[in-house]
Amino acid sequence: MQPFEGERVVGLLPEQLWPKLRDAAFLATCIPDGTPHEGGTRDQAVCTVRPGFSFMRGSIDITIDVLGGDEPKTLIYSQKSAGLGTSSEVETLLTLTAHEHGTKIVWRAEVKSLGGLLKLVPTGLIRGAAQKVIDDVWQGVADKLAPKL
Question: Which residue segments constitute the domains of the chain, with CATH numbers given?
Answer without folding.
Answer: 4-144 (3.30.530.20)
